[in-house]
Amino acid sequence: MPGGRDRAAVAAEAAKPPGGALRPDPAAGRPAGRGAGSGVPRPLPAQPRARARGRSRVGDPQAVSLALGLTSDVFALRVLLEDSGEMFRVTGCRSEMTVRELKEELDLIAGIPFNLQRLQYLDQGILMDNATLKFHDVVPGGIISLRIWHYDGWTELVLAAVEGDSSKVFSCFFKWILYFMNQL
What angle do CA 132, 139, 74 make, to 5 degrees? Predict the structure, then answer.
C-alpha cells in the first residue's frame, strides 16, 4: 500500500474514537499477543475537542449570537424563597426584563401570585415592578430573595404546601374562607 501503511493499520486508525478515549479493541477474541488483536483496551492519542456529534444547534439563538461574535444577554437567575429555603431557577432572563416580568415567570415556576411577591437583590430593598434587572445591576446567575407579603395568611398557606401537609393546606384555606364570610 502507498506510504508504507497496510490495510489493518488504516482500519485501526479509522476505528479510533475522538478525544483520546479508551475503547476495547474490535479484534478481541483473536489469538492473544501484542498489537491489534490483544483484546486489551489501549489509550488513544488525545485530539482537540470538536463540537458534539449529533447535536445540532440550528435555530439556537445563543449559537447564532456566538457565531456572529455577539454576546448573549439571555441568562439564568436563582431565586431563593426565604420563608421555606427553596431555590428556583429562572431561565430566559434578559437585562432589559422588568421586575414585573420576572415576577410573572416566578408565578408560574414557584406558584406564588406575582402580587404577593417581594423581591430583593443584594440588600437593596424591595425591587419595584417597573424597574429593569439592569437598573438593579443584577448579574447572570445571581441570587434574588423572594419573600411573601404577609397578607391574609398566604405565607402560612405557602409553607403548608411546601411541607406537603394537606391538612394544614385545608386548614389555611378554611381560615381564609371564614375570614371573608365574617367580613360580609
Answer: 75
Count CB-CB contacts under 10 A for residue 119: 20
What phi, psi does 130 have (nearest 5°)? -90, -5
Task: Give pLDDT tens digits for 29-76.
Answer: 545 444 455 455 555 455 444 444 444 445 555 555 555 544 568 999
Indicate the SS3 state at residue 150. Answer: coil
Q: Give the Cα separation of 184 and 173 in Å (integer).
A: 17
Query: pTM of the prediction?
Result: 0.55
- At residue 4, φ and ψ (nearest 5 deg) are 80, 15
Question: Does 26 score more than 70 pLDDT?
Answer: no
Q: How do 74-81 and 143-148 pair as beta strands?
A: parallel
Cell numbers found for residue 14: 479509522
Q: Which ranges of 20-165 would DSSP assign to H, the alpha helix? A: 61-67, 99-110, 154-163
Adjacent-strand bridge partners of 87: 80
